[in-house]
Write a structure and sequence with these properties.
homotetramer, alpha+beta, Chorismate synthase, AroC fold, 5-stranded antiparallel β-sheet, 9 helices, 18 strands, globular
Chain lengths: ~375, ~375, ~375, ~375
């Protein structure tokens, strides 16, 4: 990991400030022949846009992407794919009173301490709009993963302190998460959270939340022991998303206060499909060595990873998001010459970041897995 | 990240299986002139060794390191530093009945699914002994960081479901953590945990726990926005440690159910030392741009990181460890031909991994920070 | 090195096919504050364009660049800099008869063997137009290097078998190289070469040549021993340029048939400027450790590099280019179903690539040095 | 590339100073199951040792390797392979008079300028003994390549200005190169060179030379366009070897003065083996896409690479080595306080480095190809 690039083989480099001419990304390493089009990108970007008028957000930003390279007649060429989105609809004026103040909860001051200046308009590269490039790249990663039957789904599992039913529990409905703008998988919970969010908005405050992610269809064997572990890569990918404070796999922190007899997932026999005529892990990644019996697990406290390697069970993890730092109630802070000042942030700001974060969590997960699938084609000779 | 190497500039490559001739590491990129010796390595390794007979562990393994290169007359040469530790005292016999069984909670099966075979003796490269190379490398990283006044300390903050007082709370004593073999910073809590651990040992079970880490002296400005964030790098480093399930920075998951008005750390004026005659971030990394006033924060919910960049406040995070998978009570599993079988694991196994994990958490943290310090010398021209 | 990205800290990712919507690059890792503008890019791109109607080329392609991010009010922001150039003026029709034939000297067949298809229009990503992204990125690298007093200059030192006077020899005039479209540093030689080129063009043939490069102002100490050597990095950078066949440093192949007594450059005392108040290598990289006397060399057979580290003498190397593969005389080849066929390549093609290659050699050199300067700030603690 | 590590997937990290306790390497990323043993390493190391008393060298250094990890019962485990060789037989006394002098042609001064000190005994990490780690790692790479039918062979094609017959020419005998200690593929030429070398030794001088390398069995399709070209990677690998001044592929510099009609290799039909039941490039890398006819080339001016991708023809290149810098005749130099001094280098030094360089060229080539083979498993989905 470093700077503005992510990945080793399937890589993405993002660029663009929120108030510059355009934002975008360059995806390198996506193999040729993957069905991919502008429509795939539009779909993912719209899931990111607050558009739909959902209660957690108040901005409206049409983001029309353009593919500059790497795609021809509906399939990837195997060459770098560049996607850009022009910036419009940025109300610079909203930020003028911030020119000399450091906003609490934001990286304003550390940015200046590091670089000697900052672009005070809208957060520059720290802006949430930076995720646009990630989500566009995630669209390509998802297209690649689809060819292997791997599906990535995320949803808001908790917001403003109110938990939705978990996966597998009664009331959990992933389709509902796609219908309501909070991305909560239960209608009743969504309505309760909505009430709290409206109160917070009126009170000039904000709320944190948790995004949960589940990946199905991932074959066993992905990940490199020691430093290239699957969960280590994902953890780095998740914490690279703005506003994140924590990531947990499977039982997560609950495992820390549990017992081995309760946490160990019991191995049980399970049938696995074998790649035709081969005993090696093919690019299709759905075969296991024929000398090994197929194994599944009775429970999944591991969250789909053991020893840093995928087990074939669903990959499950959660990401904690802190409350949006830009709140409209008055706060105390310090200005550029060191005086204590009062600050009131104006403009259009979300109350809870989770709905917007869901497609970003999916994108970073898809990018991590696409990279690993290409890196890990076979550990055997 | 990838395979057996960690880092971009200050790197470490570890090697060695638990039943091979030797384990070790090669540290590359450590600048010349750092005071470093065999004694520094011995000290860190002994903190890792269960030696002291502490109740959480039952093995005794003298690990005498040898420096093969890179150090001369008490200082680093700037060339790669190779350290090895010969393997002795491994009771292979303990593992014979495991040859055909997949141990629950271990990576036995996924390893075979990935590679086509596994070294059944003691976990091969998945073994806890692999951390030996990490800790030796961490000793070099710590020596480098010391030159910048950066100190890394970790301790067991929770085990078997019992929490110790937190940093800053009454009863928190870091020196106590160095005295008791559980590494718990409170004598009374350590004794209570010890009781539970003894019960678990008799009952053939195990417990999870949480390791907390605090870094002081870290200058503001470390970390690269977007993908090279300080917390993203650390998250990847922590999840690369065996038995980890989660990592959380600052308020962590608590932030997810909190409010912006509560989570935003208020900026306050603070005096910073300036590098003599310079306004840039020197290798000493303790200066900030002169055009920027010094800022501190009234609280530290951020945990010392904002926007992925260090703020100058203490860097604070926690790591959740699952219970040791090797428990001695009977478990059900599957064997190499797919039959359901009973399994009883014999041999010497820890009950809770946290005491051993503490120096590993410190090592990985030191390595991440050393790498970033070298990578981040200045973001300005 | 890998795929479409180059560099470790100061990196460039290029994208774009010659017949896609646009070409471009993303430069990441350029520190903030470097004076840089669209004009700098235009200037370098125009040096690359065959425009000026020079005899070695026959195409005319206006390439108007656009900066999408990373630059604000004439200075770099320290964020990724994205530059695009839209494709126009491509006469696709010229290539239709090539659809089923493999052109000799081109990568047509290996590309299909590797990817399963190829974009037959104009070479796809293998096209010379791909260098556009490199040259744009080189403009940023040059701007960064200028701040350290480092200058990169290249010229055509030989073409069609006719050698120009070498640097330091009578008749060598670098300003002349900027005046004539062959980029040859001697008017008389340029005219002789021009004659031969016209004959070759009429005869439907092409010529190879050599590009020489000299870097002045490079401080001693750049480069990492063993695998990160300065000349190793440059060699990889040069051979990544299309149509290259060899690279030689200093005396090059002549050293292979020489003697140690003749090749060893004699050290002589030399005064070096010291960075004020410091004995370390600063970001300015123009200081050497105070305990070391200043050394120069009486001759420069080494070409400015010893043991892979810059010596402070001018860095000098040459790059051999093979003749342009697209010649208009009839050639024999094989078609897509394996039959032997005759081929006549139509369209607009250069006779000798060297004039166009000069700015590309400069760009790749600047990118390599910028990366190394950032990577190598100090090897000392 | 960077510092002491080479490669992206199949990597090697070398360590060890010539006067430290030991030298060695860690090979990471070698897949499991490759037949490999201590004997393979011994064989390659002995080819490197001047042992055989050959005229070009005068030292005798028994180097007994030890494998510390990664190999079990004659096959690689897929885990990192650590190999060490203890240092003995170093006559430190030979170097005492050099303590205050900078040897011409060596990196003594640049090393001090960069690091602030140098280990004056025998060249530290700049010593030729550093290649020991590379050659040991090359043994593993060769073992891996053997499984794909890829063979790497190098030889001394020119020394002291005397050329041996080239590959394909009358008198060229690769077996003779393995019999005589100069590694020259023609007995008569070897004897003529030997005479000149003896004269040079008496006269206290040294000679340069050229090492040629040929790789057979390499499948078409290896290499990544733009920056990951096969020849770019090899060029960087070659120039990372000490004493190199240039590298040339195929016709090399001769192409620069030739014509397109002469340099273009004519495509001709050729039969290729297809992987059973598959049209993709398997790990075996010996299939090409079925929709593509098999192509060979009538000549091989390209040297086996086109557009940076292997063509399936033999990969052929040459590396120029400068004369050994340590000559025994008197030279003028500068000492550590800046005074001009006379210097006479004593001790045991080679006259021409080529015989020793041959196994190093083979090792670096094997490492580059092994890495690329793993990286390039398929560009198609």
């Amino acid at each position: 990991m470093g700077g503005s690039s992510f990945g080793t083989v399937f890589t993405v480099t993002t660029f663009g400030e929120s108030h510059g001419p355009a934002l975008g990304c360059v995806i390198d390493g996506c193999p040729a022949g993957v069905p991919f089009s502008l429509e795939d990108i539009r779909r993912e970007l719209s899931r990111r846009r607050p558009g739909g008028g959902g209660p957690a957000t108040t901005r409206s930003e049409p983001d029309e992407p353009e593919i500059l390279s790497g795609v021809f007649e509906g399939r990837t060429l195997g060459t770098p794919i560049a996607v850009i989105v022009r910036n419009t609809s940025q109300r610079s004026g909203d930020y003028d009173n911030l020119k000399d103040l450091y906003r609490p909860g934001h990286a304003d001051w550390v940015w200046e301490a590091k670089y000697g200046f900052r672009d005070h308009r809208g957060g520059g590269r720290s802006s949430g709009r930076e995720t646009l490039g990630r989500v566009a790249a995630g669209a390509a990663a998802k297209a690649f993963l689809a060819g292997f039957g791997v599906t990535v789904r995320a949803w808001t599992s908790s917001a403003a302190g109110i938990d939705a039913p978990g996966a597998g529990e009664s009331g959990f409905d992933l389709e509902e998460a796609e219908r309501n703008p909070l991305r909560v998988p239960n209608r009743e919970t969504a309505e309760r959270i909505l009430k709290v969010i409206e109160e917070l908005r009126s009170g000039g405050d904000s709320a944190g939340g948790i995004v949960s992610c589940a990946v199905t269809g991932l074959p066993p064997g992905l990940g490199d022991p020691v430093f290239g572990k699957l969960d280590a890569r994902l953890a780095g990918a998740m914490l690279s998303i703005g506003a994140t404070k924590a990531v947990a796999f499977g039982a997560g922190f609950a495992a820390a206060s549990s017992r081995g007899s309760l946490q160990n997932d019991r191995p049980v026999p399970k049938k696995y499909p074998m790649a035709p005529g081969s005993d090696t892990n093919t690019a299709g990644c759905n075969a296991i060595h024929t000398s090994v019996p197929g194994i599944g697990y009775e429970t999944n406290n591991a969250g789909g990873v053991l020893g840093g390697i995928s087990t074939g069970m669903p990959l499950e993890f959660t990401v904690a998001f802190k409350p949006i730092a830009s709140i409209s109630r008055q706060q105390k802070t310090v200005d550029r010459v060191g005086n204590v000042r009062d600050l009131v942030i104006q403009g259009r700001h979300d109350v809870c970041v989770c709905p917007r974060a869901v497609p970003v969590v999916e994108a970073m997960t898809a990018l991590t897995l696409a990279d690993l699938l290409l890196l890990n084609r076979s550990g055997r000779v």
